[in-house]
Amino acid sequence: MINVALFGPPGAGKGTQSDALIKEFNLHYISTGDLLRKELASGGKLGMEAKLIISSGGLVPDEIIVQIIEKTITEHPEANGFLFDGFPRTYVQCYILEGLLSKMNTSLHCLLSLEVDEEESVARLLKRGQTSGRLDDNETVIRNRMREYYEKTLPVLKFYQEKGVYHPIKGDNSIENVREEIRALVIEELRKQPVSIVLFGYPGSGRGSQGRALAKHFDLEYVATGSMLDEEIEHQTPLGTLIKERYENGVLISDEIVVPLIEKKLEESKDVRGYIFKGIPRTLVQSYILDGLLRKRGMSITQIVEIELSTLELIKRLDARSKTKGKMPYDSTTAKIVQRLQEHELKTVPVVEKYAQQHGVTKVDGFGTFEEVFDRLKAVLEKSVWGS
Fold first, then answer.
1. Which value, in Å, is the radius of gyration of the alpha carbons in the chain?
2. Rounded to an integer, what distance in angstroms lies between the CA atom of residue 296 and that of residue 291?
3. Which domain holds residue 84?
4. Residues 200 and 150 in one domain
5. What is the dihedral of CA 140, 144, 146, 148, to 10 degrees?
6. Helix (H, G, I), strand (E, B), or coil: what is residue 116?
7. For the residues of 70-114, what is the DSSP string, one character each?
8. To pair with 196 at 20 to 30 A between CA atoms, which of 164, 215, 281, 381?
9. Residue 137 has what pLDDT?
10. Which of 172, 192, 212 is the endpoint of a domain?
11. Residue 78: exposed, middle, or buried by beta-carbon count in 10 A (0-12, 13-18, 19+)?
12. How many C-alpha atoms does 368 have within 13 Å on its Cβ side?
């Protein structure tokens, strides 16, 4: 997750740059003006309160604004972060945003300030006024807006400069150059954030071996429910006996067993660069559980990858594996192999479909040598997660 505030005087080009940021990094756009107008139109409790204040000539207080922002954030758990435009506007609002994001186990990671000379801003807005028809695009109003912006914004910029997240950007460069500079700063910040990669694929697709290799290559923690469950079996714990029995019958292990093991794993490795998850989520319920486990740590899913193989190839691989030391309990007969594949189709494919709608799922061809598939997966993650 990455949270960005975009600043700049009127005419700096925030709207243009916001659109690009939202699309590329899956951020949810938060503009207090837009949110307030939406709340007023909805007729909800907060909107009615704001309407009464506005109708009596007052300004909507921070008390209402922060509730609207918090409501918007909680309604969009699928976002990879939030882009704040026009908030915080005052020094006091800086602390409000800090408290709000802290409550959600996250923070503002970078403030990007488009720095444009006042005369350049005025010239841009006057030019816009010739075609937009906006009454406020005249020089007197523009100069007043500029003065108000700088009076209120300087303390905000100083606040985030002291926190080390303030990044000035020359906004009078070309749109493309400004966009590239912003993109580079966001990618640099993303590389500092812990990542969460979910690896999907049918049994036999190579998720386990590829997941371990990717974790080693990118210095990530490999979180596999199968490995944790196997440890319980290996140590012959009472839990391990129960797990073995369910394995042999081709039944999925219950969430009451899986979740505490995953939570323990995340807690033990909380200072790592990130995680690769294999074997969770296997069900729709587990997808919400994983989102909750990550959100608790101020994280969200960064990338979802599915390794694709034909059913015939899967059966051939699982049958071959059944004759090796690395065989799984469900590899023992063709009937059990088919049952496990069907279970994946019924319970896990809907999870992939859900993520495809919310986050997008990158599909990678799993046919070929281990090295060929690994190179494909590595290229996908290098580009989509770290932008290299």
1. 26
2. 9
3. 4-27+79-192
4. no
5. 180
6. coil
7. HHHHHT-TTSS-EEEES---SHHHHHHHHHHHHHTT----EEEEE
8. 164
9. 65
10. 192
11. middle
12. 14
The reply to whether 215 and 326 lie within a common domain is yes
User: Do 143 and 292 belong together in one domain?
Assistant: no
At residue 134, the pLDDT reads 63
pLDDT at 387: 60
Tell me the one-letter amino acid at 351: V
φ, ψ for residue 44, nearest 5 deg: -75, 175
Choose among 263, 266, 262, 282: nearest CA to 274.
266
Pairing of strands 274-278, 362-365: unpaired
Directed axis angle between helix 238-248 and helix 255-268, to 10°?
120
Secondary structure (DSSP) of 237-298: -HHHHHHHHHHHTTPPPPHHHHHHHHHHHHHHTTTSSEEEEES---SHHHHHHHHHHHHHTT
Return the residue matching tokens 């997240």. 165
Q: What's 212's domain CATH number? A: 3.40.50.300
The model's pTM is 0.66
Burial tier of 66 (Cβ tally within 10 Å: 0-12, 13-18, 19+): middle
Q: How far out from the chain centre does Cα 317 lie? A: 34
Residues 125 and 180 in one domain: yes
Q: Does residue 207 contact residue 278 with C-beta atoms inside 8 Å?
A: yes
Tally of structural domains, the chain: 2
Mean pLDDT by 10 residues, the chain (388 residues): 89 88 90 86 84 79 89 82 90 93 86 91 82 70 85 90 95 92 91 89 94 95 88 87 82 82 85 90 92 84 93 90 76 81 93 87 95 96 74
pLDDT at 203: 92
Buried b / exposed e over 137-150, threshold 16 CB at 10 Å, is: beeeebeebbeebe
